[in-house]
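Memo to structure team: turn this sequence into structure tokens by end of day. - J.P.
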Amino acid sequence: MGTIVNKFSSPGVGKESSLSPAPSDQQLENIKTHLDLILTALESLTRISSESMLQAAQELNLQDIVSDRVGLWRLRQSNPGRKSSGGRKKLDVEEARSLVLITCHLAKQHSELIRRAVILLEQVTAQNQEPHRTALLGDYLDSFSNTYQERMEDGETISSPKLTQLAFKLLIDLLFYSSPQGHRRLWLALLQS
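Reply from structure team:
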């Protein structure tokens, strides 16, 4: 786990600033769900693929944890809220931290698009317009809603307004996670969820 803890530390900052607290079992359950939702939002906005995630793992030297599409799929399937044919993988702390680093790395790569989407959301909200009527936000919302309904257990029962609210909350969260210290913010948010 030393490699992951080191990546969570700021350069030139002592150990007390590293993100080393280990989450409880209940926190790990929440982390699995939250991470998968954040990745779903990122996929929905940017159209990244599993290949992009594997490339990010390689760039971050995390290929020993996230080595191939099957391994990535198994990590994503660890979300207890997903529809599954059984055999969930148990996500450990190092795998969770790796997914955080990969997510934030990809969010940084797409920070301009994320920023543009959030600014557009602010503008249309301030003008009392429907966000889904803009091309960028409408496409994001459609993709997120379709993916959520396809993958999640409650996908067919969740109300459309709640799903829209979740999609836009995750979009705003992505803006923070695309910042230089985004991985620290995401990890702390996960520990508090």
